[in-house]
């Protein structure tokens, strides 16, 4: 194996493959990155039996072949190299990298012990790359982080004809986003529970092209087991697969209230800035209180002998009487940050029941393609 490759493209491709590497691999070869040089170019890949990733980048191939080296070390090296062409050669049991006057020699791992990367499952359809990245980021923020409850650490992807629905919840908030896509067949109906962290990283990394392809083994006996994504990164084609999380997901649609007693409209950016300021005096788990008046919103935090803060904002409130409700400030900021519009709309039923945050152009045009349901914090007294 011998090839020459652009340093930026090489570092980008290695970083893509290295993002899935386990911190403590069960066997040493799973911490490796596989370099494959052939007539089609250079393929850089990784696989830990759960997630696979591969990146194809242009390279001048002098001699084909394969080499397996420590992935994290290779990522650090390629990131630090000067911006010059990189020459890579397999020399016996070592891989030699040369870039300008810099030279690295890396021992290889036993390639015969390395697992075969899984093939992509059947193609399900394509979705606009930018829309997919936005939707994944909007929803993944609500996924749980407790590995003892694996079902809540995933994002549920539902395919129904021309509509893709993404949903995630950690029991304290719920995020749902719908978007249109181009299915491989018009009658497609399937669902998959994808690890939220993997989905977020993939969606952010595949915005170099116009579309992302989604692959899903929905026709296999025993249910969905594998999902794949393919698209273009900043410097070449990328693809990844991940095993799905097994288990029955929350019936999240039933969590949305069937009616609304009051609605508020607030400018998004000033709202975010005010929550950040007021929550400076709110230690961990201390809520921020919101009191909605006819044309103003009062934000408060702290009480008694503790530090206190308050701020007034312009707002429109449609309700029979003023309403006071409290939220975890971090969860509230996550939802506000995910609203992709100048105005955020908040729907309420009562101070002790979930509120719904949505985006929209103005007070008369709330949009339902993204909804963020947030549980309130009960106030004493």
Task: Provide keyphrases for this structure.
single chain; alpha+beta; 381 residues; elongated; nine-stranded antiparallel sheet; 6 helices
User: What spatial form do the alpha-carbon principal axes imply?
Assistant: elongated
Helix content: 10-25%
User: What's the mean pLDDT score?
Assistant: 93
Kindly report how far apart the N and C termini lie: 73 Å
The number of helices is: 6
Radius of gyration: 25 Å
Percent of residues in β-strands:
35-45%
Main-sheet strand order equals 6-2-3-4-18-17-16-10-14
Report the sheet with the most strands, covering strand number, pairing sense and barrel closure. Answer: 9 strands, antiparallel
| DSSP strand tally | 27
What structural class should be given to the helix and strand makeup? Answer: alpha+beta
Low-pLDDT parts are: none
Structure description:
The structure is a single chain. The chain is α+β, with helices and mostly antiparallel strands and 381 residues long. The chain contains six helices and 27 strands. Helix 3 runs antiparallel to helix 4. The radius of gyration is 25 Å and the shape is elongated.
Task: Give the helices and strands, then pairings.
Elements: E1 2-5, H1 7-18, E2 32-38, E3 41-47, E4 51-57, E5 60-63, E6 65-70, H2 71-80, E7 86-91, E8 94-99, E9 102-107, E10 123-128, H3 129-140, E11 154-160, E12 163-169, E13 173-180, E14 182-183, E15 189-195, H4 196-205, E16 211-216, E17 226-232, E18 237-243, E19 262-267, H5 268-278, E20 288-292, E21 296-301, E22 309-314, E23 316-318, E24 323-327, H6 329-338, E25 343-348, E26 355-360, E27 366-374
Antiparallel strand pairs: 1-5, 1-7, 2-3, 2-6, 3-4, 4-18, 7-8, 8-9, 10-14, 10-16, 11-12, 11-15, 12-13, 13-27, 16-17, 17-18, 19-23, 19-25, 20-21, 20-24, 21-22, 25-26, 26-27
